Amino acid sequence: MKIVLATHNRGKMEEISDILADLPVEILTLDSFPEIGEIPETGDTLKKNAFIKAETVHNLTGLPSLADDTGLEVDALFGAPGVYSARYAGETATYQDNCRKMLNEMKNFSRNERVAHFKTVIAYVTSSEKIWTEGVVKGTILDHQDGDKGFGYDPIFYYPPLEKTFAAMEKDEKNSISHRGKALRNFCDILEKQLINKNG
Fold first, then answer.
1. H-helix or E-strand containing 71?
2. What are residue 77's phi and psi, to 5 degrees?
3. Which of 45, 147, 181, 189 sits between 20 and 30 A of 136, alpha carbons compared?
4. What average pLDDT does this structure show over 90-106?
5. 168 near 147, Cβ under 8 Å?
6. Of the candidates 158, 126, 154, which has an alpha carbon nearest to the alpha carbon of residue 142?
7. Which of the residues 18, 22, 68, 69 is marked catalytic?
């Protein structure tokens, strides 16, 4: 069984591939389909954007497709940047641009006002079904960057139980507690049950 990851984001590809590694499936990326360019994320929720990407790739490849959409939601900013997390500092923003803008936006907030949540929605589309799962992790936004691993907002997202940012964690450590890891493990549970029932 083949599954196409509906993303061009290298960091996401690696994280998703690592977590799905134990499933009896062959993981393909969009590198195998160079004709598929960037897919506009026009939805107003993470779930809608995830399904837009998964459905687009499934329709173009005919293969089961999996996509995620992830947002950083900061309580003091009324849930922003949310669905706009990847382009928080502009359409062509880099990870650093987005982190710098967030640090600037939060500079006058106290430690207790820096509560944030990372949320991931996974969408899976085949010719006969549509499945979605979700994962959420709570943390705080630092007033500086710390760590050189990961991607996105990882250098400023601090996870209190481990007393470090996502960017200071090793890959396996982050995957074990992250929003994307939780959503993908929920998806794995569903897919494993399906494969057992299908083969049983």
1. strand 65-74
2. -105, 20
3. 147
4. 95
5. yes
6. 158
7. 69
pLDDT in tens, 151-178: 999 999 999 999 999 999 998 899 899 9
Tokens of 186: 């929920």
Alpha-carbon gap, residue 106 to 78, rounded angstroms: 12
Decide: 135 and 143 in contact? Cβ < 8 Å: no
Going edge to edge, which strands form the sheet with 2-5?
26-28, 2-5, 65-74, 115-125, 130-141, 157-159, 164-165
Contact between residue 152 and residue 179 where contact means Cβ atoms under 8 Å apart? no
> Are β-strands 26-28 and 157-159 bridged in parallel, bridged antiparallel, or unpaired?
unpaired
Given a contact cutoff of 8 angstroms between Cβ atoms, the answer to whether 135 and 179 are in contact is: yes
Q: Is the dihedral of CA 26, 29, 42, 117 positive or negative?
A: positive
Instruction: Quote the tokens at residue 98.
Output: 């987005």
69 catalytic? Reply is yes
Q: Which residues, in sequence order, are CB contacts of 112 under 8 Å at separation 6+?
A: none
